[in-house]
Design brief:
The structure is a single chain. The protein has about 500 residues and is mainly beta. It has one domain (about 45-500): Porin (Beta Barrel), CATH 2.40.160. It contains 2 helices and 18 strands. It has an 18-stranded antiparallel barrel. The radius of gyration is 23 Å and the shape is globular.
Length: about 500
């Protein structure tokens, strides 16, 4: 009953957010930049066109793979993300051209193969009833957006499925919510953002939300906007665990100041937490601060120098009770390079040393690690691809008291015909416990792939065929209560969605 009340309250809050009003389109300066021309002072008009803005970054969610309208890069509006910011470069946004109010409901049926501790393959059925909302509003110098997806998952075990393979609850809820507010005032730009997730499984492989196939469909339909937060600013979940309800939330504040049309200073701060409702796992909370200076070399290329500080504190119980002083502290200095062609290409890479200090009541140790954060997105009229690689300190996914991780993810989509489109996604992650003196390092590695093929039916409905597969290699001695199932897990399913707005319609 408590979960039902929570779900109902979220739905009511989202509906109240949807008081849409007509917003005036913001114009963008499209004149070429002469790198040899003298720099001009910034335009200080309170509204309208800002030809001397900061280095133009790239935005979120250019297009979805099931958009029946032909993709036109010239219609994409760039936003102001910088290399030193917390949100990565993408291609730009067609959502900034108007208001959006697009609620949708989805019914899915999934068959899943699992492995029990004896190594036997078990067949289970999963039914998912979910809803989503894509809401965006523009007015004057402000842009507000909300993205939500959530629902109820019902487990139906067949044969020996159930507790033997880690399925303990007949049904559970999941929620993903992103709320963002942007403001542009001549030299200044402010970004406030909150990302919230509630799920009985790790977000990396789509556990608890129907598996990698349904997760791939969700990120495709919402332009991957629910997953565009840099790993350094949120607790990681790249290790699969047994079924365990957890809440993850990250709050970001970011301030940019433009010295000229070529240079800008970016300051970011965030607070994140990963909290398990039961015992047997490690809870974590993290604070981060980052500062960086961007310089625009030419209309496409820019570089940045940045530094950051982070702290992660731990609590909860696993094999032993954690002391209140257990934490990791890290310092990063990095150089970054980025290249963007609005609507076509976005590339960025940042690399540098990371100094990690682990401390607890019984002692501490220090290591130096190589930190890397990179992403590439490329888009054509019918399809596109994106890749990301992140290397650095993580919060340990509830399994470790801090870890070093290497994570690779990739997605692709293609519009075959006016009504048929498809997408694929995949990822690979390696997590190692921090190497304290005299203690052997413990390693988890896992991978997943997800694919879906969709067809629009009329103007408002869509049907999808989904497939997903994942596998995790866990150590012989699990460091927590339940490290999840081993062996190859596969799922295949069918989803039917209905949207209030015509699918592919341009926002107005």
């Amino acid at each position: 009953m408590k979960n039902w009340k929570t779900s109902r309250a979220l739905v009511v809050a989202l509906v109240l957010c949807a008081t849409a009003a007509y917003a005036q389109d913001q114009k963008q300066d499209t004149s070429p930049l002469d790198p040899n021309a003298p720099l001009q002072p910034l335009d200080t008009r309170p509204s309208g066109v800002y030809p001397n803005k900061a280095p133009i970054g790239a935005a979120r969610g250019v297009t979805a793979p099931y958009n029946s309208q032909q993709y036109d890069p010239s219609q994409v509006t760039p936003d102001q993300n910088t290399l030193a910011g917390a949100t990565p470069f993408t291609l730009g946004s067609m959502q900034h051209t108007g208001n959006i109010f697009d609620p949708a409901i989805t019914i899915s049926q999934v068959g899943e193969t699992l492995h029990n501790p004896a190594g036997q393959t078990i067949l289970a059925g999963i039914s998912v009833a979910s809803g989503s909302l894509n809401f965006s509003r523009n007015w004057s110098e402000y842009h507000f957006s909300t993205l939500y997806d959530g629902g109820e998952t019902f487990n139906m075990g067949f044969g020996a499925a159930g507790p033997a393979v880690g399925i303990n609850s007949p049904h559970y809820q999941f929620h993903n919510l992103t709320v963002s507010q942007e403001a542009d005032w001549a030299r200044w730009r402010v970004l406030l953002r909150d990302d919230f997730t509630a799920s009985p499984g790790a977000a990396f492989t789509g556990q608890g939300t129907g598996g990698p196939g349904l997760a791939s469909q969700l990120s495709s339909e919402l332009g991957a906007s629910l997953f565009s937060f840099s790993q350094a600013f949120q607790p990681s979940e790249t290790i699969n665990t047994g079924e365990a309800m957890r809440y993850r939330n990250s709050i970001l504040g970011q301030l940019e100041y433009s010295f000229s049309r070529r240079s800008a200073l970016t300051l970011s701060g965030s607070y994140g937490l990963l909290q398990f409702t039961g015992t047997g796992y490690f809870n974590s909370r993290m604070e981060n601060a980052q500062a960086g200076y961007d310089y625009l070399i030419d209309p496409s290329d820019s570089f940045a120098i940045l530094g950051s500080f982070g702290r992660i504190g731990y609590s909860g119980t696993a094999n032993a009770t954690i002391g209140s002083g257990t934490s990791t502290v890290d310092y990063v200095g990095a150089l970054a390079f980025g290249r963007k062609i609005t609507g076509r290409l976005a590339f960025q890479v940042a690399a540098g040393p990371q100094d990690i200090l682990w401390s607890a009541g019984g002692g501490n140790f220090q290591i130096v690690f190589a930190s890397v954060n990179s992403a590439l997105t490329y888009e054509r009229r019918r399809g596109g691809v994106s890749f990301a690689f992140v290397r650095g300190l993580t919060a340990g996914s509830g399994v470790f008291l801090g870890a070093t991780g290497n994570t690779f993810t990739g997605t692709g989509h293609y519009q075959f015909t006016r009504n048929w489109g498809g997408s694929v996604s995949g990822g690979y992650a390696i997590n190692n416990s921090l190497p304290s003196a005299g203690v052997a390092t413990i390693q988890f590695d896992n991978w997943f792939v997800g694919a879906n093929l969709g067809r629009t039916i009329g103007q408002h409905a869509q049907i999808n065929l989904n497939y997903g597969a994942s596998k995790q290699n866990s150590p012989a001695n699990c460091p927590v209560a339940n490290c999840g199932g081993t062996g190859l897990q596969q799922n295949v399913g069918l989803s039917v969605s209905w949207h209030l707005r015509p699918i592919g319609e341009v926002a107005r």
